[in-house]
Amino acid sequence: MATVDDVMGDITKENASIKNFFGEAGVSVSQIYSRMSEADRVAFNQRVIRTLDLIEAVQIGDVGANRLREAMGASDFPLLMGVALNQTMVGSYKAWPVSYPAWAMVGQVNDFRDAERYEVTGGDGTLPEVGVQNEYPATTLAEAKKSFRVKKYGTRIPLTWEMIRNDAMGAFADIPRRFGLAAARTEEKFATSLIVGASGPDSTLYSEAQGNLLTSPLSVVAVQEGFQAMSEMTDAGGEPILNRPTVLAVPPALEVTADNIINALIIKARTSGGGTSEQEIETTNWIKAGGLKKAVLPYAPILAKTANAHTQWYLFADPAEGRGAVEVAHLRGHEAPAIFMKSPNAIGLSGTAATAYEGDFDTDSIQFKVRAVFGGRQGDYRFTVGSTGAGSGT
Fold first, then answer.
1. Which of 9, 282, 320, 350 has a CA-to-CA distance to 238 between 20 and 30 Å?
2. Would you say residue 7 has pLDDT above 70?
3. High-pLDDT (> 70) share of the chain, %
4. Helix, strand, or coil here: 58?
5. Of 287, 285, 301, 261, which is closest to residue 393 (Cα–Cα)?
């Protein structure tokens, strides 16, 4: 690993300017990066890594913050720092344990206009008998359309020039992590709001009339009830769907219960005997054998403010198969959040433009901004079952 002196050597090279390194100035990092040769990409990535090493060394106290302040004066260090900050932010965003990719379809849209999803039914039912020399009966296709839009989400944090000078480590190490965490939380809360309402399972996606709303508290018997409800789902033509739950989603209060149900080696079950009596038997855990996985919904008890906050639970079919119960989509090319720094509007008397770390002309303020772009919709209710958990157990 490169030493801090190596990093400072690279930073203070006379030819280490944005224009010399990239061949042009005033173009975004992503645009220039796409035009680099493989060798240039490797060299650039190594310099970003060394920049991250320097930030980490200052953060843990191995190197004084004054070394980081010295580096800010180098011509291309703001660019390297910007890339390093963005990588730190994206790393925090990916590290936070979002649950929705396990139970929601994840898609992309091209722009901010209505994204349309079409569902076609018909033509896949059982075939009628055709008599001798009789005309084949016609069948019809029905089409349903659902629309949604992606939206921008974000915030900004203004810092003073004095704060940067006094605590460079805190400004650079903490803000990107906070932004990454905020973006991940925002997406998770939005996705959860597609399935959770004020009293538990959302009333549009889940209802007794649709056959996918239960009241049973979470248990082996209740999970079996959910499996049965999904197995009995039929399409618009009355044909069986044969979808199978693959994810059990629960609020944090039911995480241990879910683990016990999924990971038990042996479960006890009741079955009707030859007459009217019931017998208790021990059997291999068919839930574990079937590959059911757990997902924890941290925002479920927050969104269910009225009732069933800690008792609700859900089953989902594999979102990669069928239509999916819900969909979360990002703007194409913006699948991860992005961090920005406000460009300075001050020029020194020598004609040299101030760096972004010198702040703006009026107040010396230095501003960071994060932006995430996503949206979503409810899909096909047949691919999920929800329970309020408010009923009596068996």
1. 320
2. no
3. 71
4. helix
5. 261
* Amino acid making up residue 337: P
Residue 67's SS3 state is helix
3 state SS of 329: strand
> Contact at 8 Å (CB) between 90 and 180?
yes
Q: Average the pLDDT over each of 26-30, 129-133, 292-296 and give the range with the smallest value.
A: 26-30
Q: What's the burial of 154, exposed, middle or buried (CB within 10 Å: 0-12/13-18/19+)?
A: middle
Q: Read off the amino acid at residue 116.
A: E
Task: Give 190's contacts (C-beta < 8 A, 6+ positions apart).
Answer: 328, 374, 376
**Distance between CA atoms of 375 and 328, rounded to whole angstroms?**
6
Query: β-strands 196-197, 266-272: how paired?
Result: unpaired
Which residues partner with 106 through β-bridges? 328
The answer to whether 294 and 186 are in contact (CB under 8 A) is no
Planar angle of CA 339, 343, 347, nearest 5 degrees:
160
Exposed (0-12), middle (13-18) or buried (19+): which is 390, by Cβ within 10 Å? middle
> Are the beta carbons of 63 and 172 closer than 8 angstroms?
no
Closest CA to 379 of 183, 153, 191: 191
Q: Tokens representing 363?
A: 């107040």
Q: Which of 144, 143, 170, 146 is nearest to 159 (CA)?
A: 170
Q: H or E stretch including 115? A: strand 115-121
Contact 341, 367 (CB under 8 A): yes
pLDDT tens sequence across 244-256? 999 999 999 999 9
- The larger pLDDT score, comparing residue 254 to residue 22, is at 254
Q: Cα dihedral angle (119, 193, 383, 234), rounded to 10 degrees?
A: -70
